[in-house]
Amino acid sequence: MLKTLVGDLPPLLWSGIVSGCLYGLGALGLVMIYKSSRVVNFAHGNLAGLAAFLVYGFSSGGLANLSWGGAVATAVALVACIAVLSYALIAPIVFKSDLASTIATLGIGLILQGAIQLVFGAEIVNLDLPIPRFGLSLAGVRITSYDLTVLVVTLLIIGSLFLVIERTRLGIAFRATSSNPFASRVCGLDLRRVHLFSWLVSAVLGLVAALLIVPTTFLSSTTVSSFMLQAFTAAVVGGFASLPGAALGGILVGIATNLFSFYVSPEFMNSFLLAVILVTLNFFPDGLLARRSGGRV
Amino acid sequence: MSDLTQTETPPQPFANRALDPKTLATVALVGLLLVLPFGAGGYLIYSLSLCFANAIGVLSVSVLVRYGGEVSIGHSFFVALGAYAVAILEKQAGVGFFVGLPVAALAGLVGGLVFAYPSRRLSGIYLAVSTMALALALPEILVHSERFTGGFEGLYVALDPLAGLPKAPQRYYLALALLVLVCLALARLRKSPQGLALLMARAHPRAAEAFGITRGWARISVFALSATLASMSGAMVAVASSAVSPNSFTLWSAIFLLVGSVVSLNGLTLVPALVGGAFLTLVPNYLAGAGDWVPVLYGAVLLGVTLAVNSASDLRRILTRGGRP
After folding, report:
1. What is the pLDDT of residues B37-75, one digit of tens each?
2. Which CATH code fits B41-286?
3. Are B57 and B238 in contact (CB under 8 A)?
4. A103–B136: do the CB atoms touch at under 8 Å?
5. Could you tell me if B264 and B56 are in contact, meaning their C-beta atoms sit under 8 angstroms apart?
6. Can you name the residues that pair with A141 across neighbouring β-strands?
7. How would you label A260-285 residue by residue, b for 16+ Cβ within 10 Å and e otherwise?
8. Contact A55, A175 (CB under 8 A)
9. Which of A130, B60, B159, B323 could form a disulfide with B230 if both were Cys (CB 3.0 to 4.6 A apart)?
10. CB-CB under 8 Å, A40 with B125
11. Chain B window 188-227: which residues touch A at a Cβ cutoff of 8 Å?
């Protein structure tokens, strides 16, 4: 009993951390937008799904026949345009009503989902990362090149995000807006610019997370948005307004879902996430990091 | 504070209610719907029965928006609760709609209470997120508890509510009657002390607290009320469509309920409810050929109506300011 536990646990934890990084990336996108503009972006997963399909379309010859890098660059440009356009659409209501702007993002999500189905149909495709395949075993845990890519990319992104937010003027503006939008406006900050910054960063984070998550399964019109629940759970566990909380929440959710699907049942994953959300909301309404992080970003 | 800006103005007392044109129009509409089955085809009657049932679901979402200021994208859960309550009771106990409906309503009430409790102190976005989780958890629960729910295939609802009478008309009239009853009850609630207390808790939480109404209590009761209505709608949908299956209760169906509510401008009376219900039922039926355009259309309508309502309220403010400098 104990022996199987010792044997099973490390690989479960490892793969939990790897998928947790991806949930964390998804959650970071949600939290960036929520912190700056108080909008819960329900279109996040749909945009990320469209991004993955765009990369597929531009690299496979469906839309164009570019190299993988070229396809990603084109997709980033398009996704950035869509993010700006979506923000422009809901801009009139962002300051007025959280409720109305949240409903509006659902509308955007529906349109993007419809666009995926219209352009790419019911295609089910593979979209792999252009990385050399290798694997090594360490203390009973198999570590693949995919795992390492996920970890490195996640660390790079979190690191650069941290630098931007801590060290640049834009980052200071972002922090000011998230802690007190009114005071920031009084001081002459252009809140729209800060919002746009967070929507753009979030769209790119979504694209990266989608590209990294698709190789674990396949790409269909609903694949990426089906991971949204994990990202939302990670954001709730982290308090929905904390960037480190989102990253940590992602890893916790990744480990917890892995353990749950191995030891209890893989069929009731969404119910488990629902329970995690409800328990967190009841006992840690401000997230697990609430007390330690205080008012910091 | 979006809550404050969206507060409704209190209802104007009418000197003579019977002469109020709105009431007259509604009564005339109900009269028209009452005689419609004598001249209309079977398919239209079937669609309209579903439309009435869905209209109650739209009302349940609108109640949550109006009284609670919250958005739910998980009401498919409570609709399913009601629908499966009727179907399971028929299969296991052999009892019909008139036993199933109260049980469904009770199940919705309890479900709503249990679900709203954890997020009672939090802002509305947490409720939106947890309702999304609820809607996503539902299909797997339905599919994997085959013993009761019939798994992927679902269950049939064959028993007639009123044995001996023809099938289609009795469904039509039952759904219409339930819808009208719900609308009347909601009109009562709007003027009742309880309804006003709930509205006050939303618009002026501090003042409400001074009267002993806590925001958390108000949130929970509004959600429970809304969930009860949703379950009743589900019970009616089960009878009107004579089958329940996990496919009809997904995250999309929950979002479509919200779209119906937005299209009806979150109205709590018969005509808006019918508009929302018709949008939900008739648009997919008659646009079946459009296929993938349906989500785009729904999304565009959702976005368009939300933005239009907002700019309309802006316009009104500018106009009233212009009138009264």
Report:
1. 787 777 888 888 999 999 999 999 999 988 888 888 899
2. 1.10.3470
3. no
4. no
5. no
6. A138
7. bbeeeeeebbbbbbbebbbebbeebb
8. no
9. B60
10. yes
11. none
